[in-house]
Amino acid sequence: MSTHHPRPCYLIKTGNHALTLGKTTQIMGILNLTPDSFSGDGCLKTNNKNFQQTALKKAYQLIKNGADILDVGGESTRPGAKKISLIEETHRVIPIIRILAKKIKIPISIDTYKTEVAQQALDAGASIVNTIMGTHPKKDFLKMVRGYQAAIVLMHIKGTPQTMQKNISYHNCVKEIIVSLRKSIEKCLEIGIKEDKIIIDPGIGFGKTVFHNLEILNRLDLFHVLRRPILIGPSRKSFIGKILNKEVSQRLMGTTASICASILKGAHIIRVHDVKQIKEAAILTDAIINEGKNLSIL
């Protein structure tokens, strides 16, 4: 009988939190504080009066549904998304993070590539920085993260959200992403970010074709060579829509399939919109991996 376990275990220390990764899958719930999120679930609508109330209600619901980490973002990074100003982004995210940090017990992650936004978010109570520009992280950004002893998610991207889906080409997609992420990890370590603060994300949909995304998910276990926990975010992405011919709101089953495959290939953290449904799928997939060893019902 095989005793192979697809996931090495890690302990990520950040702020007052210690995340044990590997035994069970951790769910990162997405809180989009944007009007133009690709997934259609952004909290910011034209009527701004109830924005804060809407955002907090959504956050509490995500936690109630089983989120282990809350990922707060104020700028859409969908293909072709327009950039927004630093002032606009901080105006969207900082007040919400400040309120949540006082009321919730799970770690808050700030989804941004701007140093000033990340810094203000960490001041407000966030403890993880999730940057889509993890391929070429700027020195001042990394130094700031080091200063706060925050955890960092380094996501692979080819180009920028404005350019990433144009003229995509790789000789060997997975190998090139691994090489790129290894350089980013080394950059972090050189600057003084400790190893137990670094998480990697291959960047599904960020400068990848449908076929690249499928290859990443199928070969996700190869990323264990980097010896860092793996975060994956296929939730509602366009490759699911193209394969199943489904609009964004109809991609739950496709998301669930790609999440289960990711966990079986060794993903530690899954970043999702539909926390409640995906949590059930993750619990069952974990039970399969662990052959029921952690189950209290038996």
Topology:
Layout: E1 10-14, E2 17-21, E3 26-32, H1 51-64, E4 69-73, H2 86-103, E5 108-111, H3 115-124, E6 128-131, H4 139-148, E7 151-155, H5 173-191, E8 198-201, H6 210-218, E9 231-232, H7 238-244, H8 252-264, E10 269-272, H9 275-289
Parallel strand pairs: 3-4, 3-10, 4-5, 5-6, 6-7, 7-8, 9-10
Antiparallel strand pairs: 1-2
Helix pairs in contact: 1-2, 2-3, 3-4, 6-7, 8-9
Q: How would you describe what is shown here?
A:
The mean pLDDT is 91. This protein has helices at residues 51-64, 86-103, 115-124, 139-148, 173-191, 210-218, 238-244, 252-264, 275-289, and strands at 10-14, 17-21, 26-32, 69-73, 108-111, 128-131, 151-155, 198-201, 231-232, 269-272. α3 (115-124) packs parallel to α4 (139-148). The protein contains 9 helices and 10 strands. It has a single domain, classed as Dihydropteroate synthase-like (TIM Barrel, Alpha-Beta Barrel). Strands 8-7-6-5-4-3-10-9 form an 8-stranded parallel sheet. With 298 residues, it is an alpha/beta fold. The chain starts with 9 loop residues before the first strand and ends in a 9-residue tail after the last helix.
